[in-house]
Every structure is written in structure tokens, then in C-alpha cells.
Write a structure and sequence with these properties.
The protein has 181 residues and is mostly helical. It has ten helices and no strands.
Length: 181
């Protein structure tokens, strides 16, 4: 999104007569669908390394991938409304995205985090990445984690609303930025 905005394609897209919110949500949906396709390619490769979840899990996984993809894409869209230049995005990656990833249950399950440190476990519980990972983990094995689903859906709506507000030229973050000569 930052590259799209810097190269001008995002600006051209947002100047179309379609409602801005509609365009941004369509962009999010396309990102989520592409990421779901990439996840299935990754799972196909993982199958050759002995990862064999139940076949029904692949069906359960699709809606979970789309919801989690929407959440992560909307977070990225919101962050892109804050970042002016592509070079600044590296700082965002180092100080926002990586800590959120490492302080989630992506690398270790929640029960393992609790065994290691209660304080670390509590941080993981406040991290939306944790719930996205848990949603995907449960879906792949054909079960539903209702709490993770609720948190991911609510977080998605919050990030989408923040991104739409950030891209609003009148009151959003892009409208408040001024360039000095």
C-alpha cells in the first residue's frame, strides 16, 4: 500500500468516482484472497514435508484465512495511511509488526507461553495476531475457536474503520499532512 501510494497508483484509484470506502474494502478483499491462495500453496508444499492435517481442515481453513487476511490487510492499510515514505516503512516493520508477530502464538502455542512466563502470556492475550493465529490453527484441524473468531472480526472492523478514516482527505491523516517547500 505504501508503494502504491508513493508510485501514484493509489492516488489515481482514490480519485475515481467510486466511494473511497468501497475502493479500500475492495483492495482489502483482493489482498485477503491473494494471501489465502498463497497459504494454500504453502500448505501444499508443507504436505511434502509430512504436514498432513485432515482434509476437511482445508475447507474450514478458507473462511478463517479470509477473515485473518482481512484483519492483517486492514492493519497494513491503516499503517500505510500513517507512513509518508517507503523508507519509513522499515521502521514500522521493526517497531510494530515484528513485535506483534513475536509476541503472538505464531511461534509457540499459548499454553507454552503461559508455562514460560505469565507476563508474556498476558501480552499475547492482548495481541490481535494471537487470535488470528489461533483461528487459523483451530480451523486447519476442523474445529472452531469462537473467541478468536470474535476478536479477529471486531479487530478487523476497527482496523478497516481506522484505515478508511486515515484515507479520508478531509478529516483523515492524509488530509492533515502538509508538505513544506
Amino acid at each position: 500500500m505504501v508503494v502504491d501510494r508513493e508510485m501514484g497508483s493509489m492516488r489515481v484509484l482514490l480519485t475515481s468516482p467510486m466511494p473511497r470506502a468501497y475502493l479500500l474494502v475492495c483492495k482489502l478483499i483482493s489482498i485477503a484472497l491473494i494471501s489465502a491462495l498463497q497459504a494454500y500453496v504453502f500448505l501444499a508444499i508443507a504436505y511434502f514435508f509430512g504436514v498432513e492435517p485432515p482434509i476437511i481442515g482445508y475447507i474450514y481453513l478458507l473462511p478463517a484465512l479470509i477473515v485473518a487476511g482481512l484483519m492483517l490487510a486492514s492493519l497494513g492499510l491503516f499503517i500505510s495511511s500513517l507512513v509518508e515514505q517507503l523508507e519509513n516503512f522499515a521502521g514500522i516493520m521493526n517497531f510494530v509488526i515484528f513485535p506483534m508477530f513475536f509476541l503472538s502464538s505464531a511461534l509457540y502455542p499459548l499454553w507454552k507461553m503461559r508455562e514460560a512466563n505469565e507476563w508474556l502470556y498476558q501480552i499475547c492475550l492482548f495481541n490481535p495476531f494471537t487470535y488470528a493465529v489461533e483461528l487459523l490453527r483451530f480451523a486447519l484441524y476442523a474445529t472452531t475457536n469462537s473467541k478468536a473468531l470474535i476478536v479477529v472480526v471486531i479487530t478487523t472492523f476497527v482496523f478497516v474503520a481506522a484505515a478508511i478514516a486515515g484515507y479520508n482527505p478531509r478529516s483523515g491523516l492524509l488530509g492533515r499532512k502538509t508538505k513544506s517547500d
